[in-house]
Design a protein that fits this description.
The complex is a heterotrimer of chains A (432), B (506) and C (380). Chain A has 15 helices and three strands. Chain A has 432 residues and is mainly alpha-helical. Chain A folds into two domains: 103 residues, no CATH class; 286 residues, ABC transporter involved in vitamin B12 uptake, BtuC (Orthogonal Bundle), CATH 1.10.3470. Chain A has a three-stranded mixed beta sheet. In chain A, helix 5 packs across helix 13, helix 6 runs antiparallel to helix 12 and helix 13 packs across helix 14. Chain A starts with a helix and ends in a 17-residue tail after the last helix. Chain B has a six-stranded mixed beta sheet with strand order 6-7-8-3-9-10, sandwiched between helices. Chain B has two domains: 234 residues, 3-Layer(aba) Sandwich (Rossmann fold); 243 residues, Rossmann fold (3-Layer(aba) Sandwich). The longest helix of chain B has 16 residues. With 506 residues, chain B is α/β, with parallel strands linked by helices. Chain C has 380 residues and is mainly alpha-helical. In chain C, helix 5 packs parallel to helix 7. The chains are: A mainly alpha (432), B alpha/beta (506), C mainly alpha (380). Chains in contact: A-B, A-C, B-C. Chains A and C meet through helix 6, helix 7, helix 13 and helix 15 of A and helix 6, helix 7, helix 12 and helix 14 of C.
Chain lengths: 432, 506, 380
């Protein structure tokens, strides 16, 4: 490198540093702005205490209620936010900028929660428990998306796959329960749901891999097809034959000893098969993708299918297998909506959760555990919206319902630039 | 292990890529397979390595016929191929790439990476192929990546190793290293096939040479006695002119003045490092160099597609350093892009639409926002006839043209306008000899009409035959300038490797 | 003598080269595949009916009612075209996106926002004559849709956020917005507690076209708006520089960039125009058909628009024909529900199957090789 060019590179790098500095300062201003909002809106208006019940009947030892005076809490948070914001202007803040931004957002959310609950009370533990429950379909949806995109198949059809699992699980379970009893009937329904999911995965695979349909169109088509079919059967048959829409619900299984821990116990160890199943699926998928031979091959197919091909790996078969596994996971996740939740099928009951799962996959950076973390955030927002709608907060419930969607947009726009999808994502592989 | 290919025929639709080919590959010997682009060398070797199944003919190993269902069968039989475009997963490590497909595993399909690392180190030590097993492919240089490909092949106990254009991206020094590796593999008893179109290389390292042309074996040669021109003649079937007949150049005023241009590449590393040169009216300036020394980024900076870190570019005295691509185009700078399929044309557009791809917004092709398709039609017909683009209609899709005709289309577009400076990047890559000759002819004609031409090419023959002045690029810098009629191949080769020569600049 | 012959040959050559190539209109792709797809989809629909306990006679009744309800009378044709107009407009929005390489799945949300904006202007702005009020209401709908489309477009251009996710999210936001707005005093009809808007004033309603024949015929001027947009989109895509840029950017973004086209600007403009078309569809639905807004007033036309755009191969004329087909299915479907008791959701299944078959021509070729001359093999 010549001297002149080296100097220019330093200047260029300095420019990048300058940009980073601007970003850091922007975060600082945002935190300060949040501090002002929290102080003025959440602090000034509210009176009374926000009471969060933490204890549940199953706790090993009783937990006191968390009573937080609303206004003072808001002021305290505002001060902390202002401090964090001011900190951004100090040298060396850039390194921990993202971390403290995240913390600041978290604190703002707690301030909001306290403000919205001022003068009322609800069970925080219950809400956290609901968070985990609501995160399940989203985390699993994200896992489905990850498994498919890791082999370079974009799966927009997760929504349809979930719906097919929900529908099949409910119908089969409803039909078999009178004959086999709830436990076997429900299990049969679950198995049927997983099988149908696998079939949907096979369909997507066939369309995309063999017939080389554009992946997004194939996904949209699957969604429309499943929605149409399930809606038709629901309105044509299920409304008159109620016995076909009466499925058992998998009960919660309390894990001995662990379920007695306050707050944590109800959150993680008093859930039903679907929550435990989701945890197992996420853990095993992570092991599969990053520590096994088949996982290495799958990722190779997603990153550089031609290289995999020349090494004797059957690209088509690997894609089919992974997409079908993804489909089976989707079938399981779909069954949660009926067999894990309400015990009957309603038209379009997945209501966009599949797409939120895709968003979770993206900001989980195509990693099963990352998708889980993102799903928990969404689950929290969802549970929060439900709770606050009941508690009658000043904000209309529709806006609270919008929050996860807007959060998705913001995060997809903010993060996608930095993360990277598997290199061959979206492209069909054509063997010469 | 000895291989014999008997009567191999492979068709793709109506194209016969391999036509009844007979070939022998013997252990402890290097077979040079010579042929130009499209002669069928890669197809033949892909058939041998199991990627294709032959339509007719058979493969014999040590006299016994074998049938390969897929690449795996060939690998198991001991046939290994080092591809021209590396088959490496960029985000995986060296070890992961080497073991992919034959991974060591433990319980529950667990991937045993520590065992993989040990095995890679063992092969490295045995054959002098040093490379760090945990390095990520996307972070190691091209020469090392090639070593990974060789380790891959040795890991699978290959007895036959096929090298497809292995020196395309290597500097002359790296090429010498590579030849050393070839000789040591030969001494170890492997049978080696060396596919190339570079005459001097095959003469240096092969024991026997087979020449392919249009899908057939047209001749065999002994490197000890064969000459470059004889081989070239077999390759193209007639006497090949190494230099295009041209009158001496009459350069006019300065057209393009580049001063201290520096630019970064995709990875934010310095790609062009203070390049300075001038192109005059009526001359052809050739930029030689091994692929990857900043030529691509230089051209992008000159055509306005890449921002410059420092330096200035002026055109006829006007500073265009910050001008947009379209502004430069309007000033009279034409560009034939390096990757015609990706950057030069829209395959699903017809010829007429492609003909106005970068001038549709100008009169007479449009007025305001309304397109004037009649004018487009007229200009397209004229260009197609003039440049002899073989097509049934100007409304045929560009995709249906052969590579050579596509390039002629683009050349027609760029030359038949108000052009003052033409920047041609790899203008004849991957096209048939007839089209190459035609485009070279048109370039010289443009030069004689006063157009300034900058040709950037990795094909030295092209540079030598077209240029009046030759610049050599190495590591992002212009390291040498030569007068085309006085320089030798050896001097240029040394400059390309960064070795200072007598004729070089400071 | 020889020069004379050479000149002759050159002119002959010129004429031959300039002859519009028949290769442009690929009969198999544009006619055979869609027709086969519709036929097979309807057959499979019949199978579904069988599986849900509908016997053969009723299937016959159902399909007869479908056909009659779509084309069997003036009233049927009126209903078909009334249903075709909004879905065609929405599909034009999706098709424009496809042409530029963008997946505008957000037509539904853009339609909702357009409808809400136009209903507001429709009842809140008073004292204007129809030739100002109506265009104003339509324009407001288009502008609202344009904004709802420009946002994901801008996000894609600025941050690379994939428009499939952002448009789907905005769809969901728009649906929540509807529920909220229709219960506020701003929009809610006085005296009602359900989510329903005030009625659009007569000066903002799209006039009925056939009520001089029979006052019950619902066909409104919206179909004329749709036809006009078909023409304008055709002109835009194939006769203007702007359309040329859209198509180039959609087919090969690298080459478009090389040719000096600014892809960021194209992305935003295309999404805005696409949103405007979908917004117009929403306005059409409100001002021409319903006269007021309720939850779900779009009747899923935004989603159907995706199917129609695919079926119409993203070509304005194809979209129009496909839109009429979908309008026919809807109008006929309603009749089928009444006459044969088969739920209208069956139509959704048929529509989804049509998309799958049209999008996978290789599937049709593999299943019906006798219908095709050229046979491309499927792989894998």
């Amino acid at each position: 490198m010549t001297m002149a060019a080296a100097a220019e590179k330093r200047a260029h790098d300095a420019n990048l540093d300058h940009l980073k500095r601007r970003q850091t300062l922007t975060v600082g201003w945002v935190l300060i702005a949040l501090a002002i909002v929290v102080a003025l809106v959440f602090g000034v208006e509210s009176g009374g205490n926000a009471t969060f019940r933490l204890a549940t009947r199953t706790d090993a030892f009783p937990m006191p209620n968390l009573a937080i005076p609303a206004a003072p809490y808001a002021y305290v948070i505002a001060v902390v936010l202002a401090f964090l914001g001011a900190r951004q202007f100090v040298r060396g803040a850039a390194k921990t900028s993202s971390l403290f931004f995240g913390i600041g957002l978290l604190l703002t959310v707690t301030a909001f929660l306290v403000w919205a609950t001022a003068g009322k009370e609800f069970s925080l533990t219950g809400m956290l428990q609901a968070t985990v429950i609501r995160a399940v379909p989203i985390a699993l949806g994200g896992l489905v998306g990850t498994l498919c995109e890791r082999v370079a198949v974009v799966n927009i059809g997760i929504e349809g796959m979930l719906l097919s699992g929900a529908f099949t699980g409910s119908i089969i379970a409803s039909v078999l329960t009178p004959l086999l009893g709830a436990a076997l009937g429900g299990t049969a329904g679950l198995i049927a749901a997983i099988a149908i999911g696998g079939l949907m995965g096979l369909l997507l695979g066939a369309l995309v891999i063999t017939f080389r349909v554009d992946q997004i169109i194939a996904g949209v088509a699957i969604n429309l097809f499943v929605l149409g079919l399930t809606s038709y059967v629901t309105s044509q048959v299920l409304t008159t034959h109620h016995e076909l829409n009466n499925a058992p619900i998998f009960p919660a299984w309390n894990i001995p000893f662990l379920s007695g821990i306050p707050v944590i116990g109800p959150m993680f160890f008093q859930q039903n098969l679907f929550v435990y199943g989701a945890a197992i699926l996420i853990a095993s998928s992570t092991y599969y993708l990053f520590h096994t031979r088949m996982g290495l091959r799958a990722r190779a197919v997603g990153e550089h299918p031609e290289a995999a091909d020349t090494l004797g790996i059957n690209v088509y078969r690997v894609r089919y297998i992974n997409v079908m596994i993804g489909g089976m996971v989707a079938g399981f996740a779909g069954a949660w909506f009926t067999l894990g939740s309400v015990g009957r099928f309603d038209m379009n009951m997945t209501n966009g959760r599949g797409f939120i799962g895709l968003a979770a996959m993206i900001f989980g950076r195509w990693h099963p555990v990352g998708a889980l973390a993102a799903a928990l955030v969404f689950g929290f927002a969802d549970a929060l919206q439900q709770k606050l709608a009941i508690v009658q907060t000043p904000i209309p419930s529709e806006f609270l319902a919008m929050a996860p969607y807007i959060a998705t947009i913001v995060l997809v726009a903010g993060i996608v630039g930095r993360a990277r999808a598997p290199a061959a994502d979206g492209k069909p592989y054509v063997k010469e | 292990m000895d291989i014999e290919l008997r009567g191999i025929t492979k068709r793709f639709g109506s194209l016969v890529a391999n036509d009844s080919i007979n070939l022998e590959i013997k252990a402890g010997e290097v077979l040079g397979l010579l042929g130009e682009n499209g002669a069928g060398k890669s197809t033949l070797m892909n058939t041998l390595s199991g990627l294709y199944r032959p339509d007719e003919g058979e493969i014999l190993i040590d006299g016994k016929p074998v049938y390969f269902q897929d690449a795996k069968d060939a690998i198991r039989a001991g046939i290994g191929m080092v591809h021209q475009h590396f088959m490496l997963v960029p985000v995986f490590t060296v070890a992961e790439n080497v073991v992919l497909g034959v991974e060591p595993t433990g319980a529950l399909d667990h991937l045993d990476l520590s065992k993989a690392r040990k095995q890679v180190r063992a092969i490295s030590a045995a054959h002098g192929l040093d490379v760090e097993p945990d390095a990520y492919i996307e972070q190691i240089p091209v020469g090392l990546q090639q070593r990974v490909e060789i380790i891959k092949v040795l890991f699978r106990a290959a007895e036959v190793i096929i090298f497809d254009e292995p020196t395309a991206v290597l500097t002359p020094q790296e090429v010498e290293d590579f030849f050393g590796i070839v000789r040591s593999l030969k001494a170890a008893g492997k049978a080696l096939v060396f596919i190339t179109h570079k005459l001097h290389e095959v003469l240096e390292v092969a024991d026997r040479i087979n020449v392919l042309r249009a899908g057939k074996v047209v001749g065999q040669a002994d490197p000890k006695t064969a000459t470059e021109s004889a081989l070239a003649e077999m390759m193209v079937g007639r006497e090949v002119q190494f230099r295009v007949a041209k009158a001496p150049a009459k350069p006019g005023r300065a057209l393009l003045e580049v001063h201290d241009l520096s630019a970064l590449d995709e990875r934010d590393e310095i790609a062009v490092d203070g390049a300075s040169f001038t192109v005059h009216e009526g001359e052809v300036v050739g930029v030689a160099g091994v692929q990857g020394n900043g030529q691509t980024e230089l051209v992008e900076a000159l055509t306005g597609l890449r921002s410059m870190l420092r330096g200035t570019v002026s055109f006829l005295g006007q500073d265009i350093t910050k001008a947009s691509a379209r502004a430069r185009h309007t000033l009279g700078i034409s560009h034939i892009p390096e990757d015609r399929q990706r950057d030069g044309m829209v395959s699903e557009f017809d010829l007429a639409e492609n003909m106005v791809l970068d001038s549709y917004y100008q009169e007479p092709f449009s007025r305001g926002i309304a397109m004037n398709w009649a004018a487009v039609r007229k200009a397209s017909v004229k260009n197609v006839i003039e440049f002899d683009v073989r097509t049934p209609s100007i409304y045929a899709l560009a995709d249906h043209l052969s590579g050579g005709n596509q390039q002629k289309l683009i050349a027609a577009r760029e030359l038949n306008r108000e052009v003052k400076l033409l920047i041609a990047s790899q203008p004849t890559r991957g096209i048939d000899v007839g089209s190459i000759e035609y485009i070279h002819k048109r370039i010289i004609e443009a030069r004689d009409a006063g157009v300034g031409i900058l040709v950037v090419s990795t094909e030295l023959d092209e540079i030598l035959s077209l240029s009046d002045r030759i610049l050599v690029m190495f590591s992002g810098r212009i390291v040498a300038e030569y007068a085309a009629d006085k320089v030798t191949l050896g001097e240029i080769g040394l400059s390309m490797a960064g070795v200072p020569t007598m004729g070089a600049l400071g | 003598m020889s020069e004379y012959i050479k000149q002759e040959t050159v002119t002959e050559q010129e004429t031959k080269l300039a002859r519009p190539s028949a290769a442009g209109f690929d009969v198999e792709q544009l006619v055979i595949v869609p027709v086969l797809s519709v036929v097979v989809a309807m057959l499979l629909g019949g199978v579904v009916m069988l599986l849900t306990g509908v016997d053969f006679t009723r299937i016959g009744q159902a399909y007869t009612a479908l056909f009659l309800g779509a084309f069997g009378s003036i009233s049927a044709i009126s209903e078909t075209l009334t249903a075709a107009a909004p879905v065609t407009l929405a599909a034009l929005g999706v098709a424009l996106g496809f042409r530029a390489g963008l997946f505008n799945i957000g037509a539904e949300g853009q339609m909702i926002v357009g409808g809400l904006a136009s209903v507001y202007v429709g009842f809140a702005v008073t004292g204007l004559p129809i030739f100002i009020h109506l265009p104003l209401a339509l324009l407001t709908g288009a502008v609202a849709g344009a904004l709802w489309g420009a946002l994901p477009g801008w996000l894609k251009a600025a941050t690379g956020a994939h428009e499939v996710i952002t448009t789907i999210m905005l769809n969901l936001v728009a649906m929540q917005l509807t529920t909220y707005l229709l219960r506020t005093p701003l929009m809610q009809r006085p005296g009602r507690t359900d989510a329903i808007s005030q009625n659009v004033l007569p000066t903002a309603q799209l006039p009925k076209l056939l009520d001089w024949i029979d006052p019950t015929l619902r066909l409104n001027a919206g179909i004329l708006v749709a036809l006009a947009m078909v023409g304008i989109l055709y002109w835009l895509l194939f006769r203007t520089t702007v359309g040329f840029e859209f198509r180039a950017a959609g087919l090969n973004p690298s080459a478009a960039r090389y040719a000096g086209m600014r892809s960021s600007l194209i992305t935003v403009v295309v999404m805005a125009l696409a949103g405007a078309l979908a917004g117009l569809a929403g306005a059409n639905q409100i001002l021409g058909v319903l006269g007021r807004a309720t939850i779900g007033f779009t009747a899923g036309a935004g989603f159907n628009g995706i199917a129609v755009a695919l079926l119409g191969r993203s070509h304005p004329v194809g979209v129009l024909l496909a839109g009429i087909l979908f309008g026919a299915l809807e109008a006929g479907g309603r009749q089928m529900q009444v006459a044969a008791g088969v739920r209208i959701d069956l139509i959704s299944i048929i529509q989804a199957l049509i998309i799958i078959f049209v999008a996978a021509p290789l599937l049709m070729r593999a299943a019906f090789p006798w219908a095709f001359r050229k046979n491309l093999k499927a792989r894998g």
